[in-house]
Amino acid sequence: LRSQAERAVAGQARGTVNWAQVMNHFLESPEISMFEGSEGGLLGTKVTNSTDKQPSVQRNNFQDRAKHQSTGIDKIYWNSYVDTLVTVEGNESVYFFSPHAPGLDAPRAVLTPQLGSRFYDYEDRPLYHVQAVAWDEELQDVVALLSNRMLIMWRLRNREKCQWQQKRELQFAATRREVRGIEKGPPLWDLKMLLIDPQTGADIHAKKQPEPESEGAMRRDLGEVRLAEEAAVQLNIWWNSQLKVWITTDARGQLCLWNLRVIEGAWLDDCVTPTKVLSEHTKLVTSHLELNKNKFTTISLDRSVILWDHRNLTPEIKLCGGGAHTAAVLAQAYLPRFNSLVTVGCEKRIFVWTIDSTAYRGTKGKLSGHQANVVDVSAGQRLFFTLDEAFNGILWDGVSLASLQTVGCSTIIPRQVTCLPEHGLICLSGRRLNFLEGNEAAAEKLGKPPTKEQQANALSKQREGASLKDSAAPRYCGMSESMGYVLS
């Protein structure tokens, strides 16, 4: 022990250390906490350093060799039930990828809508692409929203093999709302869903329309059809497990709630109408997130964050202006253990709000650390990760809201970040899938279940009590004014 080697008492060989001096060594010497060796002690056990308990992540050895279509991954979702990452890549299919190392050469499953020739050009190229995907955990249905206003539904057949069966084909439509008197402003439309024939694309329950009497009438009818199709375009879709409804949004920020379970049995109606229409937002809604059984939140390009009540579907509070976001809000994540809602947008600051199961409690913090606008956020159980436009990510502590680690990702150019709590991983997706793997502390805080070895070590440590370093920690610290010493 270098710090005590000169303190051998008379009659002892040089370098002899007494028991009291060993204890002083652990109290006074910083060498034990700064030692970076891999082995030490009489038993050859690993000597831990002070950074072992600090959560950190590093890129693992996962190799994504799959051929991703189009220009890359547009949207990504984590499906814990099937243990796959679901991607939307700007083409006609939905892809399911496994997150397990060492890598993959092809997706586990590819879902492509089975439609007729009407939906393809003369070279058999699809005239549509997938815009968004949502997942019903209870009925195990996957729904894909297409660019041609169609909604395709698949049901899970085999969980182990990740096999799906196409179940339903629907299409959004709109009819002009009748207004008494002189109509002012833009026309109002009522949305509905039609059950269509997948081969022809025609409404199954449609009635034959009379032929137009003249060319002018035909032009008016075609113009009305074009306006109705534009009004029926939906851009994103989510599943609300508490309300048992699908939620879609359009470019005007209107949210429509659809109960598609009515068509499971003997369905006699010719269309499905939304159970509720929410019009608090004025621009495109970018995210919907369930916080608990009573609350959910939506964010929008109109710079607002709205907290909704599941029971009456009314907005409890709208966070905009006056210390809230000053630019479009793009992503959100929730840490239920700390009642913390994290929202990011086209600005460098990160907003953290406190929302519990009963009400909004105020602003918890505004975090600075990024040098570019933040584009995405994802959360585990006690950590969350943010990504900015300069491809730099920051790992944050959910308790203290302190920055734990900054990760440079310029070599992989990610556009989205997704936490996989069950595996202790953070997925960065752009042109390909890349993964950041947490150390033992980070994996635990992300939500990874402990292994049998970790459980045994924790039980052993609990039985033995605190380690020597913890038990020898100073209990008092004071200063001697006359001598100028610090005594601990």
Structure in words:
With 488 residues, the chain is mainly beta. It is 11% helix and 37% strand. It contains six helices and 33 strands. It has helices at 19-28, 31-34, 215-231, 440-446, 452-464, 468-471, and strands at 57-59, 63-64, 75-79, 84-88, 94-97, 103-104, 109-111, 130-136, 141-146, 150-158, 163-176, 189-195, 236-240, 245-249, 255-258, 276-278, 285-290, 295-300, 305-309, 315-319, 329-335, 340-345, 350-355, 360-367, 374-379, 383-388, 392-397, 403-408, 416-420, 425-429, 433-438, 478-480, 485-487. The strands form nine sheets. A five-stranded antiparallel sheet has the order 8-9-10-11-12. A four-stranded antiparallel sheet has the order 1-31-30-29. The radius of gyration is 29 Å and the shape is elongated. Mean pLDDT is 85; it is low at 30-48.
- Described by the principal axes of the CA atoms, the overall outline is elongated
Strand proportion, as a percent range, falls in 35-45%
Side by side, the strands of the main sheet go 8-9-10-11-12
Report how far the terminal alpha carbons are from each other.
20 Å
The level of helicity is 10-25%
**Average pLDDT metric:** 85
Task: Furnish the topology, listing elements before pairings.
Elements: H1 19-28, H2 31-34, E1 57-59, E2 63-64, E3 75-79, E4 84-88, E5 94-97, E6 103-104, E7 109-111, E8 130-136, E9 141-146, E10 150-158, E11 163-176, E12 189-195, H3 215-231, E13 236-240, E14 245-249, E15 255-258, E16 276-278, E17 285-290, E18 295-300, E19 305-309, E20 315-319, E21 329-335, E22 340-345, E23 350-355, E24 360-367, E25 374-379, E26 383-388, E27 392-397, E28 403-408, E29 416-420, E30 425-429, E31 433-438, H4 440-446, H5 452-464, H6 468-471, E32 478-480, E33 485-487
Parallel strand pairs: 2-6
Antiparallel strand pairs: 1-31, 3-4, 4-5, 5-7, 8-9, 9-10, 10-11, 11-12, 13-14, 14-15, 15-16, 17-18, 18-19, 19-20, 21-22, 22-23, 23-24, 25-26, 26-27, 27-28, 29-30, 30-31, 32-33
